[in-house]
Amino acid sequence: MSDEPPGAEIIAFDPMRPPNLNRRNCSATTRSGKPCRGAAINGGTVCRMHGGAAPQVRRKAAMRLLDLIDPAITTLAQEMENAQFSSDRQRAANSILDRAGVVRVTQTDADMAVQLLVERLRTLRDTGQ
Questions:
Q1: What is the average pLDDT score of the chain?
Q2: SS in 3 state form for the chain?
């Protein structure tokens, strides 16, 4: 017989499931006085059931996340400049570009390539090289 009160859930550890390190628990309490085990909304401190779905709470959470953008980009820029390996610098640069909304083109557009080549040829002709 265990020391757990009747009705207490036992959560088994699953080694195949990675822990969610970014999850923050809701700061509210249940009717029984126990802490809520729900996940807080992004940028917020409470879950959807404890007020996280309210428009004013969602706006405040969005403002908290927006306030974190500049320090995050500054940190990534420092990492990009000071990283020892070029792969780390490239990852930091890609992360900054992703957050800035710059879309990476995976396929080359033939018309764009022709325009780029023509511009380069004109530049070479104008500089006399």
A1: 78
A2: CCCCCCCCCCCCCCCCCCCCCCCCECCCECCCCCECCCECCCCCCCCHHHCCCCHHHHHHHHHHHHHCHHHHHHHHHHHHHHCCCHHHHHHHHHHHHHHHCCCCCCCCCHHHHHHHHHHHHHHHHHHCC
**What are the sequence ranges of the domains in the chain?**
22-67, 72-127
69, 61 contact by CB (below 8 A):
no
Q: What is the pLDDT of residue 30?
A: 92
- The pLDDT of residue 10 is 44
Total-model pTM? 0.47
Closest alpha carbon to 28 in 15, 17, 37: 37
- pLDDT tens, 56-77? 999 998 888 888 777 877 887 8
Q: What's the confidence (pLDDT) of residue 77?
A: 82
d(CA 61, CA 45) in angstroms, rounded, equals 8
How many Å is the maximal CA-CA distance in the chain? Answer: 90
| Separation between Cα atoms, residue 52 and residue 49, nearest integer Å | 7
